[in-house]
Prior knowledge:
By secondary structure, the protein is α+β, with helices and mostly antiparallel strands. The chain has four helices and five strands, in the order ββββααβαα. The protein has helices spanning about 35, 40-50, 70-90, 95-100; strands at about 5-10, 15-20, 25-30, 30, 60-65.
Amino acid sequence: MEVINALGRRKTAVARVYLTDGKGNITINKRELNEYFPIGTLQYVVQQPLFLCEVAGLYDIKVNLDGGGLTGQAEALRLGISRALLKINADYRPKLKAAGFLTRDPREVERKKPGQPKARKRFQFSKR
């Protein structure tokens, strides 16, 4: 099997996923999964599509991750892995779609406006 690549994005995080046949190793920026994501919930989020499609030990995954924070990166990676699995087998689509793993979360940070401390927060109003 040749290398299958896919892209996942969330907020400002970008995950480039390269999927090959293997033993289930997940390498992120040349580091192991549990070293890069020390929090168990984030490790679970990354592996959700693999467990859902029951292919957890079949593929090696190499990932280039950049931008954003840990949660955004984990969710970008989940989307990238889901898209890569679809390229391997289109029969996974109903399961992945029902779980919501194929939808790119469109929410982005709103920009800060001038004359305000944050995007929507205002300075305290003083009548006198």
